[in-house]
Amino acid sequence: MHSDAFSKCHPAVNLVFFLGAIVATVLIVHPAYVLASIAGAALYYMLLSGQKGLKRILVLLPIFVFVTAVNPLFNTYGDRVLFKVFGRPYTLEALLYGASLAGVLVAMLLWFGCYNAVLTEDKFTSLFGNLAPALSLLLVMVLRMIPNLIKKGRQISGSRMSVGKDASNGRTLTEKISGGMLVVGTLMSWALEGGVVTSDSMQARGYGTAKRTSFMIYRFTGSDGVLAAVIAALLAAIIAFCAKGAASAVFTPTLDIAPVRGTNLAGFIVFVIYMLIPSVMHIREAVQWNISRSRI
Amino acid sequence: MKKSHIAILIVFLICIPLTLYFGTIAARRSFYLTGTLVIIELLVPFFMAFEGRKPQARELVIIAVLCALGVASRVLVPLPHFKPAFAIILLSGMAFGPESGFMVGAITAFAGNFFMGQGPFTPWQMMAYGAGGMLAGFIFQKKLLPKKPLIMAIFGFVMCVVWIGPLLDCSQIFLMLSEINWAGVAASFAAGLPVNVSQGVCTAIVMFLFGRPILEKLDRVKIKYGMMEDADGI
Amino acid sequence: MEHFKIEDLNFSYPTAKGKLSLENVSLTISKGEYIVLCGRSGSGKTTLLRHLKTVLAPHGKRSGSITFNGVPLEQVSERDQASKIGYVMQNPDDQIVTDKVWHELAFGLESLGTDQKVMRARVAEMACYFGIQDWFHRNVADLSGGQKQLLNLASIMAMQPEVLILDEPTSQLDPIAASDFLNTVRKINIELGTTVIVTEHRLEDIFPYADRAIVMDEGRIIADDTPRNIGKLLYEQKNLMFAAMPTPVRVFYSAGGKGDCPLTVREGRTWLAETFPKAPAVTALPVSEPDEEITDPVLSLKELWFRYEKDSPDILRGVNMEVQKGSLFAIVGGNGAGKSTTLKAICGICRPYRGKIKIFGKPVEKYSTGELFKNCLSMLPQDPKSLFVKKTVREDLEEMSKDKDHVAQIARLCQVTQLLDSHPYDLSGGEQQRAALAKVLLTDPKILLLDEPTKGIDSFFKETFAGILADLKAKGLTVIMVSHDIEFCARYADTVSMFFDGQVLTTDVPRRFFGANSFYTTAANRMSRHVFANAVTADDVAELYRINTGGSN
Fold first, then answer.
1. Domains of chain C from N-terminus onward
2. pTM here?
3. A117: closest CA of chain B, how far (Å)
4. Are the beta carbons of A163 and C387 separated by less than 8 Å?
5. Does domain B55-225 have CATH number 3.30.390.50?
């Protein structure tokens, strides 16, 4: 991954931002807002993953079309009937509602994509180290064991192969399944046996002798505080505008979508700013880097 | 009263009703968000109970091994859609009791998603897997059903088709449908059925052929190291 | 001042039916001492070490007393024991708990509830002292075995222990990583004054520096003296442990040397130089001329090229090799030189993108997998545990062959008959190795591939293993072995081949091969090369010494 300013912030700030973005996206079905959320998420996603990101975004297109088209089949409210399917009306209102929901889904998936790239497992576990020490330790241990077990599993498969009992060259389905499960079963014994050493090693280093503290590899800095305050203020503003109906949108039975002008426009702008936070930070860092380089 | 018991009361008497109320009134029937919140609120007391118990090193290690095995097994069986993870979760519940079964399920789902990508379905999956492991623990530890291969296989199949699959389908229904009505729900479940059935068959095969040997292995560990004696019940 | 005081410790495991695993063990360990504990596997070393930390002490019947700093150990709180008594175990992988290097370093401190500020300082200190800064943020899964073990050590040192107990810490490491690790331990002892108690198979690196060596046998302490005296004592007692002594010690006594025994290669060189001020009459042992043309190659590799990914660097860069039928062919070389990959290529686990592999003159791709691994080729993997899939050794062997007589015969050959009803995981490292070998041999291979067969095995098991290999050779098997253990190769191989950078550099008989090297060679050769031309094992040096001094022991 390229250097990304938002990823370098404290994980708590990352988490709050993504929670805010995802919850706001789920709750607001106003087409303009949905588009803004998609745009913000897609832009950031591409900044994070470059060329490959674009491909993955395009994969979402069929999902969008599918969800849009399917919705009117089950929601028959609305006046403007486009045509009939199985004797049931297929209405424009429902189609638009479907498009909006599909947009929400796409935006969410994109935000989750960004979340996965930014909030890596070590950031996530460090967030809950003090709050839930046993759980976060458990999670860290699982994450430690997964690559280890995959490696050991491959070793077992390799050993099976070198005595001519390889699972993947089993001809029938049953041979493949039983070969594979034999590896899994052996791996289980091996891992549980090794687990005894792991638990000894934990106890030898004092696990359970005191209330655990947690080593904070990520520090909450002043700029994290500023960013957190900005995020909180923007979220509060979005809630306030929404409460006043700035983002209200009703599709069925009759279309009633709040126009984006006047005070409503202000609400929309706040929403757009919020969704652009990570992208703006990313671009600003890239620009500053180029300027400082050109000065040398 | 234990902290976790108080938490359960708070969740059931205050949090969930409030969530449902606000979900229907304030958030204008955003079923997905309401549902997800309720699920997260249900997960919290379990996690608090686990924290409160101050698990021993060996208990943590065993749960971690089983979770990691569930995630790793996906890669190790040379068949594309064959996922033994859920069978491993059910067997963990049977061997170590409902509470450990729940933890193995929930953490397998969560940790697996660090590799497959977290998504809108993550909490639902945690709940589905966790509850599956827990139920297996209740039913087979209280000896409501015997640990016989065929019975375990049927149990695994049924759990996949009527519990885990539908619960995951629910999160999709809530996300994708503008109006929740019987036609839509039925269509969604029908669309999800092939996947759920194939998952069920896979789980049943694993339970039938490998359930007993795996349980034996887990029992060997339990006896050899005398752990998890007090793992039943919350 | 005394640190640990053990008095009349007796211990038996619940399953041992009263047989004592520790018998009348009395021992005093002073502050700052560097103690090496040696003995065959199963002599009670690990059992004794584990008694020095209450949470690790095994369950069983126990009598006698252990005090730590004058206080009975069981009265020292678990918390104090956790921080003051550090314990490093054998397996580098299983000891690691968390997924990140920084987190592992902090694990002990987190458990002790250390506050953030102290923790930061300690972790930073440890990272610097152990040279971990460069991989501080890495996943532990990406570390090498040596780095993992160093991390385990650092993580324990972060708690600032007074005593460091190490139970065969380098048995799973390659020689370079092992001596790095042991040097670090020595540095800790010298610079910080931490008491060190270590058990090891590989004594060459630690024996000369230890203050005291303690020898155990059958649960008893049979010797407790300075390393120099221990060598003499074991020689005089004709104790089997003598075979595990460092090369200079073995050469000295088996050659019949008089006076103070050399412990290091340097001392050994001085001793030989003083004995032979002028060049001795006989400087070389006879070397069998290898047949110029290999008459009957069972295996030939031509120009093998291989890489794992399309864009990754080549691992094999034109490997050429021919193996004579019925020989023990050893492949040596550093990490990542392509040794193990070559074995995998021979087995068909990885497919070279260029080059030819011929087995018995037939290209490997013409074999079906069934054919290749039945009566033809078989490989003993590096970790024997990965071969065991059943509950007992017997079931595991019977998985390979239904013929009970055949199983019994192979079990006898590999000396595992008494172990047949044990769970494979309950065996010691050397026993597992032999059981795994039995399993592999049940495919009736004509070519046997061994990947690091001597890893983690003590010198007695190595001799047993070499004996089995000799039996197999006598039956016409060809053995190809990849190893870091040059002492073992020098002693038992017929041909040694050096791998470097994905290619075969040289191939020769051990005497010429190691005789020509000056760094990558055995301790015996390094010790004697200024006097003798091609002495590569302790026996060679002793023999030449006796020839030249006219001694005839």
1. 32-55+77-245 (3.40.50.300), 297-528 (3.40.50.300)
2. 0.91
3. 9
4. yes
5. no
